[in-house]
Design brief:
Blueprint lengths: L2 H18 L6 H26 L17 H11 L5 E2 L5 H14 L4 E8 L2 E7 L8 H18 L12 E4 L5 E4 L1 H5 L5
Parallel strand pairs: 1-2
Antiparallel strand pairs: 2-3, 4-5
Helix pairs in contact: 4-5
Length: 189
Amino acid sequence: MTDDDDADIEAIVLESLRRLHPFPVTWEQAEATFADDTRADLAGLAREHLALQYLGNPYEDDPDPLGVLAPVLWRLAHSNGEPNQVWCGAGWHRLVAETDRRLAEIDPWYSLGQVKEKYGLLRYYARPSSVTDLDEECHRQFRAIISSAEVASGFLCEVCGHADAQLLGVGRGRTRTLCDSHTRWGVQP
């Protein structure tokens, strides 16, 4: 390749960049912009990761970082006076909220004792209210909804909610349900 060929290629590339960007762009500027965008994306991922990180304790500062647990927290406060007993990663919060919604359709006054992670799966401790006269079919549906949430949690990352998760033994006898990304990020038990 000659210097003329290199100049022609660079001219074609610059013309393409000019069409994409109405201002003059050099390779150095394009690389710097890409690097800044990449750094910003990584910083955003890191912030999200830290916000969703489950530390093994209830969310004392913000028990509902995703803003989906208001009905669940209300039910916990009215059932047992412990509104912050949702002890699972934010990745499961939408599953918890959906479980509450489905159970409330069967029994609007059901009692909720606790929501937590145990052995890498969601545990949703609830019972029908004594006010509601549920038939056997409604009791079966009630138990089935709780069981299906437990099974679904085995496929959802408890940190981010991504659906390609798997149960992993992560040491010290702790089992977690994590996606590939959070397994690589080294989420602590």
